[in-house]
Amino acid sequence: MIKSMTAFARQPIEKNWGNGAWEIRSVNSRFLETNFRLPEAFRYLEFKLREKLRKKLNRGKLDCSLRLDTNQGNNEALSIDPVLAASLLNSHEALQQAAGIKQEPDLTRLLIWPGMIKKADVDNELMEKELLSGLDEAIEQLISMRAREGESITDMIRQRLDGIAKQIIYVREEIPAIAKWQREKILGRFEEIKLEFDENRIEQEMVMVAQKIDVDEELDRLETHIKEVDRLMKKGGVVGRRLDFLMQELNREANTLGSKSISAQTTAASVELKVLIEQMREQIQNIE
To answer: Which CATH fold topology does 7-73+129-143 show?
Structure first.
């Protein structure tokens, strides 16, 4: 199966300790590049995350981020820090005495003091396990989207391969007519300058023309290359680089065909070939 390198996946996480979400964005790249945006408390997971991605993916630039909101956990387990609360109340009392005034403490403001509210201890080992499980699901989503994108690319490439095959058939059929047209053109020139028809001279000219317009080798190589592209598409897997190389070879033959052209028909065929090849090449840049 052919897979694209362009995809996106988002996997929500809802647990007792809070909510979160994994997001993975993937674009094309020559190699596998992984970038992470993680909460500071989970930076230590980066190596494990990179290994998980490397086991499942071969190419692409990946931006992987984890968003967490542990404030949405079990609110019934919240408590205050009694030591910190007592310290703040004592400080408030001392401040009243120093200022010589009497004022009740604002308990609401004391509650938002950093560290005042304590949450129930979270099982970090369980939390890590659940986060990694969520990443596994996000990776599977990403792979599925890559596969769907790959199917679309495959259909497009097969259409272009059929178009190239039609152009090859067209050029082969046109070659005899082009040779006949060129022979008549040479005879017409002889008549214009009133030269005697010398069969040997005409044959020499025709041999030179035949050598110039002989594109059988280029057409044969074009056919060979499109067969190889078709074989790789059926094989699937990590074939993006090989397909990209074949696009270069196809374009080389199309250019040679254009340089040997002596008629509008073959010139147009060469241009059409290059358009089809470029359309394939643009899509192949996204294949894993």
So the answer is: Ribosomal Protein S5; domain 2 (3.30.230)
